Amino acid sequence: MALADIRQRPGVVLAVAILLHVTLISAQVNTASGLPVLQVVTFGSFSEVQRGTMSIIDGVRGLWSGYIALQQVQQENTALKQEMQTLQIKLQQERAEAQRTDNLRQLLELRERANLDTVAAEVIAGAASPDFRTVTIDKGSSDSLETDMAVISPAGVVGRIILPSRRASKVQLLIDRNAAAGALIERTRVQGVVVGMGDGLLHMQYVPGSADVKTGDLVVTSGIDGIFPKGFVIGTVDHADRGAGAYHEIVVRPAVDFSRLEEVLIVRTPPASRSSQPEEPAK
Amino acid sequence: MRSAVALAAIVISIAVQTTLGRYIFRDSGTAIDLVLIVVVYIAIKSGPVTGLLAGTVAGLIQDALSSGILGIGGLAKTIVGFLSGVLGTQFIVTAPLPRFLLLVVATALHAAIFMGLYTVLNLRQFPAPYPAIAGQAFGNAFVGVVAFQVIEWFPGFVDRRRAGRFLKR
Question: Which of A22, A252, B58, B119 is buried deepest, with most CB atoms within 10 A?
């Protein structure tokens, strides 16, 4: 009866819905910090649906590729891929360590960072809306994951955790419009900030126009953002223009193929910005 | 019963968008919004109020699963659901061409509200958005029209097969 009454007044229902949405948006825009409870609960519960759907899809894919296709070749291929990924990650860690040893001041940091505490995770879902570049991974706060932990892959930097739930986490990819990371050009050590452009490419900002930048230069993390460890590959310079302003206009092509992300590593070492906060004095 | 079916369609579309969508659309370069297609279909089939409520639920779930502001996608899909429902009751939108046009307009309106609010609130920037909107509008329209035709063709196909078997006996 009441439902029938509502259906007779679509204008009123529309006005109420718009009012509720505007109130909801206003509440969030005015909030200085913190995550909305509704967002955490919805994400936590829906990630289980995503996990279930992904399990079904994985099951069907596994059945096809593991049994109907050549079973042994598939297993051997999987093992070789895992081995190759492990070696690539080791190679990146070695490169990062070699750079740090050049500077005595960074020797202490090397002792802390050389053995990064990482955990492997599987990508179980992509972004719910095409306007955001995020993925969902199958590890969460029960695996000691926290907000702002860096996510890396064998190819390079992937992004950071923005919303951990108990058994899943949302990862903001580096190519999202709101993502950024401290970066430097490996050849000349010129520093800047890499930001996502939303179209799969990255923009390196605040590089002085007098700096030496060439197409093909490797761009790596600088570590100054306190999230991403220093020395990990971000991408290569696609093209650099000496613009009208004081800075270069540099477009960076990411090293990671974000459309084919399947397994990632999360650096569980707390961000420098957090670990440097003073502890409460003992009572 | 119809509400439960609508809710199930929304949940399935979001699950497919977030899981299978990564594999289906990753090489196409066009960001298809399956959830918007489902909202438009529910609206033209069930009217403005159901379309509005479907848009609200679908948009809020998408917002909650995204890293943006909760409510902006919900508001955009609410308005699109309502207007699609109004158009569905005022005009005949059963042929592929009107549905194609409706989906193009609905996607463009959704993008205008979504990107407009983010830009007005100074939360995100969308440099050169028109090619992306156009691509998404025509992509959604194509996928939507094909999906609508398949959904409506399938029950009739099953009935015809049943009737054929009955006559053979």
Answer: B58
